[in-house]
Amino acid sequence: MNDVQFKSLDLNLFRTLLAVLECRSVSIAARDLSITPSAVSHALTRLRAALGDPLFERRGGGMTPTPYAIELGRRAAPALEGLRSAIDPLIFEPRDSERQFVLTGGSYAAAVILPKLLDKIRETAPRVRIRFLPIAADFVDSVERGRVDIAFGTGPPRSARVEWLPLLLDDMVWVARRSHPHVRAPLTMAMLLRARHVVLDNLRPVVGDEYHEAQFLLDEVRELRTAQALDFEDGRVVASASDLSHAFTAVLGSDAVTLTLRRYAQAAAPGVIQLLEPPHRTPKVTIGAVFASGRDLGVNWLLEQIKEFLAKDR
Question: Which of 58, 94, 107, 127 is the most buried (most CB within 10 A)?
Fold first, then answer.
């Protein structure tokens, strides 16, 4: 695209592109944008002509984006949100705001924080939307560059350009299905040594690559070895998983056990699984929020909402 073509582009065309990318439908995008379907089609036609790419193809009753459209949307979304923030009034009005907040986290944040946050903003900011993304290795960079508003994880990141706000302190419990043949409360070391185990092989989905020191937190093999200097037989580990939800789901449908965070277990399968107190010492885990230094008023409001409902759960 040459400079003349760029100067002639209407920013609303990119709003239309992002709406169709999100819902994969011209009619639904039109409804969300409060315009007609023909106006959406016209906007896409103008973009296709300016950018030299078909952007979308009709398949199976929906709109399938081209690789170019997907990459364009990935780059345009934070730019448009930054422009929106730049012209927003100095006072954030949640009831009037149509802002989309981009959050990232692992299974823990999705189960413990996200559902209550959605209920909270439904009451206080009905037009605000949340986009929740899986946490990636470069999440700190995404926060710094404004692609992500808040990332959830453990421990303060090693970056002076982002801030860290502790949100809650959690502890660890063993979990087993209720009909387990020999694991029950009160849990003993003998039961654990007899049981089969699903272990977490890394904490990337929970805390990201930056926190290598957190690796031991959910590694029950090490916990058992150090608890009473007992030798843990390698044959007891029947599976490893890289995500809390994968390990938890495996335990729900088998006779294996795993060590997980209490609030996650309570949120993921209330009343379906046994929560068993460890017969050995386990660390406490602090879950917090990472956000850009000098956060905007909208992010500040959102963090206050999160802090408020988490404080009620203590």
Answer: 107
